[in-house]
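quick one, 333 residues, struct below
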Amino acid sequence: MRVDFHTHIIPGDLPDFTKKYSQDRWPVLKPTCSCGANIMVSGKVFREVTDQVWDPKKRIDDMGKEGVDMQVLSPIPVTFSYWALVSEALDMAQIQNDFIADTVKSNPSKFLGLGTVPLQDADAAIKEMDRCIHDLKLHGIEIGTNVNGKNLDEEYLLAFFEMAAKWEVPLFIHPWETMARDRTPRHNFMYTVGMPSETALAAASLIWSGVIEKFPNLKICFSHGGGSFPFILPRLDQGWNVWPDLRKTINPPSHYLDQLYFDALNYDPLNLQFLIDRFGYDKVMMGSDYPFLLRETPPGHTIDELESLTPKQRDQLLGINALNFLNIKEKFE
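---
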């Protein structure tokens, strides 16, 4: 079974929140034709998209062509809206969560779903996570790498991570509002340099601060192969060794890897082998970033190219690990 863990979706009838809440920062889906649209932010084109991003039938057709059995649906990070009033961000989250849940319910053999929460407020985030998991029966929560420029080790977020661990909710961490945005607009470096660096900062923050140590049941997957985090891990360990006054954990960062998972989206067999060697065959899962331009086509192409894999290991990376991460056993038993 091939499971594409990293795909994004948005409701085709997403309301125009710029009119509803009188703020032009909201993402708006503006049709350009019957099979395409622009995601507009502050009156500018944020991203050109096709009906792949909202039409389940189109996605299923693409999955058939590309040999994918299931997709894990998650919101597009620009819709996180952590900057907004909590009640308004919750409105945006609930519309998407309901849409994803309905899509999964209508196509249970093709889709699994992740929800989103207003992470700028821990109580509201916990309440919506509860609804996502226990009422809508979604399979996890996608969150951003920071909240309005604050890292994920902020004190107020501990309650959210505590409940995610208690309820065994898998968390998918995706970069958004990346660091050094003022230095990365040229050459689209926000996507190729900023996002990997942003993901590394999120991972380092959760480990160094002791969040991972404090909640050993917490399950986290980092997108884009963990960005640059796998490569800077020894440097983090060295920092822990030479700055004892900054230590927040009993052990160095590399000790806290059992709870971390990664999608395999790093495009290169050499990098993928490094990711596997560092974290293990059971911690890496296929993810393509469907349906966006930087996606891997076809999904799992790099895994297929990795000659060192045994058939069992290949099956793990292509599907079993994703289902295991999402606490879904029956799909492969």
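The two ends are 12 Å apart (CA to CA).
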